[in-house]
Amino acid sequence: MAYWLFKSEPSCFSIDDLMKKKQQTSHWDGVRNYQVRNFLRDKIKIGDQCFFYHSSCNPPGIVGIAEVVKNAYPDHTAWDIHSDHFDPKSTPENPRWYMVDIKFLKKFPHIITLESLRKHPNLKNMVVTKTGNRLSITPVTPDEWKTILSL
DNA sequence: GCCAACGTTGGC
DNA sequence: GCCAACGTTGGC
Question: Would you state the pLDDT for residue A94?
Fold first, then answer.
């Protein structure tokens, strides 16, 4: 089992939105970055756990945990001309983008802020704490996972 | 709203 | 295949 961090702007899709979904499960659509697409398609599997991270808000940070409940399948929003994420180069015959389904597991009583992640010596190398990191999904090591749960 | 970082595009 | 221009992300 692997660990991940999933970023979302709460004004767009927050952990509360995930909680309110039917079965507290949602697909994770709209990824249009090849590195993240490869994570989704090749690495992220049923049973993996994910920190749910709120970005572009005040303060940014980790707000809870979700679990992968469905392996990668084509992101159909890419071939929906009305979608914000429409990509004419992706087709049902030859899908370019993928998504997984995640299910809500828990919401933390308090947000674990980006600032507090940066302060912790064990998290110095964590991808999300590095400036300029723009991947919406990043891998989390077991050590980082354990450290963050202890905060 | 600003701007640094960085991915993508396209001309050559 | 290089690289400048451009667009987007995301912290502040």
Answer: 83
